[in-house]
Write a structure and sequence with these properties.
D-Maltodextrin-Binding Protein, domain 2, 5-stranded mixed β-sheet, 3-stranded antiparallel β-sheet, alpha/beta
């Protein structure tokens, strides 16, 4: 039976492209994607071998490979004043009720015109709805998404997934068996005394080949 491999990921992260490459390269090891609000808990429980989550995490317990940084945005009710702006700063939110909490329920409160909230742009995109708007906040702290796995959880499959996330090609991917380069067939050895490129001598009574100089006549 094939060894299972699962990837836990938090809202806003889109691992589909990596899962597709995995399916092409590792057909004998089906990959399971586990959406969760707590990817580290999935690692601790053993239900996932790697996780795509946001930093910070405890580097004494987990290996971490930072992947990319996310811009922060403010989400406000439709027709709010910020809808007329392209970007804004935290100072523009001084007179606003800024809501903090779990993202999905908080978006519900924003849509109900209770206040606004600041969150990663990818999360706002994943939870977007018609009755809210989002605008970048240029001076808000950014967030960083990383690939994480337990300190003692390294394996060939984990290494393979790391390579896919990092863009390693199939030929350079770990676990791929190298095919030895085929050597050209050796030429037969030349006969002793034969010169390279020399034409064979004409046999007795044989007419010279066309283009060869005529033999001198004996007097």
């Amino acid at each position: 039976m094939s060894e299972p491999f699962a990837v836990a990921f938090v809202v806003g992260v889109t691992p589909a492209k990596w899962a597709r490459v995995w399916g092409e390269r590792m057909p004998r090891h089906p990959l399971t994607l586990l959406p969760t609000s707590d990817a580290l808990a999935a690692l601790d429980a053993g239900t996932a071998q790697v996780a795509l989550t946001r930093l910070p995490v405890d580097t004494e317990c987990y290996n971490v490979i930072p992947l990319y940084t996310e811009q922060a945005v403010v989400v406000a009710p439709k027709d709010h004043a910020i809808e007329a702006l392209d970007t804004l700063t935290l100072a523009d939110l001084t007179d606003e009720t800024v809501l903090v909490g779990e993202w999905a329920p908080t978006i519900e409160l924003v849509a109900a015109n209770v206040g606004v909230t600041v969150l990663p742009q990818s999360v706002a995109r994943a939870l977007s709805r018609r009755d809210v708007v989002a605008r970048p906040v240029t001076d808000a702290p950014t967030t960083q998404v990383a690939l994480v796995w337990p300190i003692d959880g390294s394996s060939d499959l984990v290494d393979e997934f790391i390579g896919i996330v990092r863009g390693r090609t199939a030929n350079s991917s770990r676990g791929q068996v190298a095919v030895p380069e085929e050597k050209p067939a050796a030429r037969p050895a030349a006969k002793p005394g034969a010169k390279s490129g020399a034409k064979p001598a004409a046999r007795a009574g044989e007419k010279p080949r066309r283009g060869a100089p005529p033999r001198p006549r004996k007097r």
